[in-house]
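Running log. JK asked me to keep both predictions on one page so they can be read side by side. First protein, sequence followed by its tokens:
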Amino acid sequence: MNSLADLRVFGAIGFQDAPNELWLGKQGYQPQKSLLKRIVDSAFESKVGVVGITSEDDAMIQFSPEDRFGFLRHQMGSLYPEYIISRPQEGVFRFWKRGEKIVYLVNAETIHAPKGSDWHGVKLHVVGGNCLPKKLSLAEAVKEADERGYMTFLMGVGASDEARRVADTVAARVTGIIEHDATNTFWDALTKLPKVGPSLRGYSRSNNALAKKYAESFGKPGIAVSSAHWMHEIGRAGINFELTNENDVLGDLRTAIKNRNFTNKRGHNNLLDVLRFGHLLQEYGGAPDRFKGADSSYNRSGEI
């Protein structure tokens, strides 16, 4: 069965449900208890078969809103009897809705440089699990993910020569490279505009071209992802692959990527949506009350 897999999906900018409407209220995604249904329905509407539910945070306690995959597990009951849900393997949930094809949610995490370290924009995207330790070096993070049996992908390698030098230290050990990120949507000409240009460079389409060239230079598979921060962006980019074993989605993905038995869907997110995403992060990312959820990792001890 041919399936579209979008392996880096946030769905919303944050899963926190704070009284000040950060973040869900600012995006119109309240109530918090409807997040899982919104994501699954969006996948059905976009004809996406595999969705990599991605966590990325400096602090993450299992089942807190920052652990997105674990947090969504608590909303499973609200989907019965409209959906039939099963767990074919660790880190995967299957959703079937009468009259629709099946959607799989896969656990994923993007790891960025810990405080005090500089990876020059490079990140490590992990597929198969999350909640890895947060204070590892890039090499240690790759090793930890590999030992847990997760797939690993470098991203951000198109950002600069410094980024590529950082990536060089681990490129031989990762599963592949994210060579097309749908958030890299701005034409290079726009990045040269006065005042606004510098803030757009991180989302330039040339970053994808450079990442693709980097993947080819290392002989690594290069995959496409949406990096969706809005529900309607899910499936904007991804990989088409053949799903042969419904009880081993991760195995089929690993084999298809390793053997390059997939094709990339290279869509781009809407420029205004990316600008909205950037505005919300800039406006509220440092707000002192942005983690006012009772179950937020930031309000509890035990940071991983």
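And the second, directly underneath as requested:
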Amino acid sequence: MSDKTELKENLKKEKAKLHEKISSLKKIISDYKVERKTNWKEFKNKMNDDKNKIEKSIDKLTSRNKK
């Protein structure tokens, strides 16, 4: 019984982290639109890094739910 509770708590924490990362990406995009940064390469690299982190978080969530 405690395993299910622990899994639910872990799931809630992972979801919160995921939402936090997504919010961060949204902020970066809106900041970029406002500022019209000229350094596209730096922005693109940061965006790809953040996207990869989100993908890993989603993979972790789905693998934990399968257990």
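Observation for JK regarding the second prediction: The chain has a mean pLDDT of 81.
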